[in-house]
Design goal:
Layout lengths: L2 H9 L5 H11 L4 H27 L6 H22 L4 H25 L5 H19 L2 H19 L5 H20 L8 H22 L6 H24 L2 H23 L3 H29 L1
Helix pairs in contact: 1-2, 3-5, 4-5, 5-6, 6-7, 7-8, 8-9, 9-10, 9-11, 10-11, 11-12
Length: 303
């Protein structure tokens, strides 16, 4: 995408003025300082929260009972206060809200470790997902909704006994496919953007690849063959749809997923010997080259 291409589309009346300005601001941000500031803020929030969680985990044995409980609670209160004073319609306010979302999970983990509230991991993620729902309603942030969906997915996987179970496969596929389809086809969700949509369908490809890889060694065994073939079909269908829609990112990711499934199947005979590794490398290189050619052809066709 370039300004010259946008100008052509505008002159040919293939873009209205509002869409033109929106896309132009992505290609050439009017306020580069604000554009960079927003992304640095998001990265800074992520690093601070990750550091806080890792700090508690690394110093767990040296902490007393009160300190273990108070740290995530203090973080939760501070994040809540920050979101209140900065307001949720601002970037800093949204950053504080995400901090509160993570602190809720950190406190539940600490509380469960101290009092041994249960032996099952799904209890933590189930309660965490429920507590995230009010935050989703308050922030009305699409990424908060997606975060809650990821937490709920981990809950369901843990509840089923792991991600490689029958129940999790079909529920995860159904939930993520439905979410992707809503964002793809529902007009009200169109303004959520391509980037958000890809964070929804990406787990579909990831899970198909993981399931297919784990099933590959028993792919001739009837129960596992279905999941492996489902992974192949899923990647193939999304690949065809991406080709039709000229969605380069969707095409590239599913080309990678399909290549991973094929390599997992070939591993039965090739293993990790030199010949096998060479063939795997060639297949993945071919997948990357195919994605590049698709990007190039799609770009030329748009021009």
């Amino acid at each position: 995408m370039s300004k010259q291409l946008l100008d052509v589309l505008l002159n040919e009346r293939l873009l209205d003025e509002k869409s033109y300005q929106t896309l132009l601001n992505k290609v050439r941000p009017a306020d580069k300082t604000a554009w960079l500031s927003h992304r640095l803020l998001a990265a800074g929030v992520a690093f601070i929260l990750a550091g806080f969680v890792c700090f508690i985990a690394a110093n767990w044995q040296e902490m007393g009972l009160i300190l273990r409980l108070s740290l995530p609670l203090i973080g939760l209160v501070l994040c809540g206060a920050g979101a209140y004073y900065k307001k949720l319609d601002t970037w800093p306010g949204q950053g504080f809200a995400f901090g509160a979302a993570v602190m809720i999970g950190a406190f539940l983990a600490v509380f469960g470790q101290i009092y041994q509230t249960g032996a099952f991991l799904y209890e933590l993620f189930g309660l965490w997902a429920l507590l995230l729902l009010p935050l989703c309603c308050l922030t009305r942030n699409k990424w908060m909704y997606l975060f809650a969906l990821y937490v709920a997915t981990v809950y369901w996987g843990s509840f089923q006994g792991g991600i490689l179970t029958d129940g999790f496969w079909w529920v995860a596929f159904g939930v993520y496919f439905t979410a992707w389809a809503l964002v793809e086809f529902l007009p009200a969700c169109k303004n959520w953007g391509e980037g958000f949509k890809r964070f929804i369908w990406m787990p579909l490809s990831v899970y198909a690849t993981v399931w297919g890889g784990f099933s590959a060694e028993k792919v001739l065994n009837f129960p596992n063959a279905g999941y492996y073939l489902a992974g192949l079909v899923l990647a193939g269908v999304f690949l065809g749809y991406a080709h039709h829609k000229k969605d380069v990112a969707l095409f590239a990711w599913n080309a990678l997923a399909l290549t991973g499934l094929i390599c997992a199947y070939l591993d039965q005979w090739l293993g990790f010997r030199t010949l096998g590794l060479l063939i795997y490398c060639l297949l993945f290189a071919g997948s990357g080259l195919l994605s590049y050619r698709f990007w190039f052809s799609a770009r030329e066709e748009i021009k």
